[in-house]
Design a protein that fits this description.
2 domains, globular, peptidoglycan synthesis, cell wall biogenesis/degradation, cell membrane, membrane
Amino acid sequence: MKSILNVQTKSINSAALILGAASLASAFLGLLRDRLLAHQFGAGDELDIYYAAFKVPDFIALILIMGAISAAVVPIFSQYLVRSREEAWDFVASLLNVFLVFLISVSALMVVIAPFLISLVAPGFQGEKRELTILLTRIMFLSPIILGVSNIISGVLQVFRRFLATSLAPIFYNIGIIFGILFFVPKVGVVGLAFGVVLGAVLHFLIQLPVFLFSGFRYKAVFNFFHEGVKKAVVLTVPRSLGLAASQINLIIVTAIASTLAAGSIAVFNLANNIIFILINLIAVPFSTAVFPILSMRISENNKSEFLDKFYSTFRQILFFMVPASFLFFALRNQIVVIILGSGKFNVADIQLVAVCLGLFSLGVFAQGLVLLISKAFYAAQNTKTPAVVSVVAVIANVFLSLIFIDLLRSSSGFRELITNLFSLEGLNGVEVVALPLAISFSAIFQCFLLLVLLHKKIGDFRLREASRFFIKIILISILMTVFIYFALEMIPIYFRLDTANLFGVFWQTVLSSMIGILIYLGLAFALRLPEAQIIGRIIRRTGQD
């Protein structure tokens, strides 16, 4: 087991394959987690409490560690490693100790001011609902401390291209939460979810620790706040943190808005968001994570030409997979939600609202995926300021659009009539929640466009016109794929005599329709001689020969 975890991945595609496979496993566990939550609680007050309580600890974890520290660790550790392995490990030891002290201090402060934080995150919560949210928040503030150490380790292992251990960490995180649902919740109720989150953080750390030690790390009790690398990490982390803070504040504002809507709105939004993030975690995260150390190394070597080539090829690969996947999710949104969440206390109205939110999220998910890659390109160039500023602008746009769309859906406007007729929402309560994913999709597209323009100005031509033509081709063949999917959805139940009133029938209707759509898409991609399709063909032929 130890030798397997220590395997080094040589190419971007093989690294992306490992990360993608692990993301698939993590996504499956995430779906199982959400199905268990939906079955146990339904889209009501208890799930609203959990998601609202999760927001602030998750905010701290994401802005200070998961993205910010790893964005600083990879390029700086790469630089030290080129010079001296000993210097590189001294930097990591100093960074770990300094940030551990900082995270413990921040988490302790957040525990004290939790009531104030919940007033900001969920202003619509009152009485026992508010008190329970505060309690869950305080328990979950243990997780940022543990995840802080774990994600610094992840950054180091990425530089060594030991992606297997880092990709297993989120899987074990989900296992901890699922354990909490199955074993803690029956004992202590919704509070058990908070204990599950903490357990997940511990497992996230433990799975990576042996590989980290094997790579050469030895702990040193050094608290050098003025270490050159630590100071540089702080300089890079602050603007990156501001960018992530903007993104997370965006979700917190969305949660605050949702808390003023119908009961269950927070749960509806988060469940749809979790499903759409499957695409981001399966496609955009593996590719952008795999290419990041290479981009950082090319910058360190001052090899701009190969930097641009690697960025452009990864840009195309993300588009090639994400655009058709988003069309597929839009077409199959109802079936996907029924399969994943249609159980227990999760009723038909809940399913309809989550399905509409999922469909609206899918409109802009390709842009969210590209934002990850473009941001990594900036971080590799040790520029964390530009993505941060663009994130702030995108958040402002999202809040503005959310309030406008909610107002339009509350009034008897043509917009409300369009949405309710298009998605068959007549007579449903709480339809205003669908304004939130629609606003996020529009703001994500705007953010992606702005980042592309700025990256083009900073690093020069990465074949943007060629990428635009490629994008148009992908859109057109994805539309044709969607037409065949809709046809298959109608014909498959008739041809195979499937009863779509039960889960078995819906499952096979979805699987067969998806297979037809994917085959149509790949066939059209081969007909257009797209290089990405040729690579898939070679992999299939090689697998067949083996």
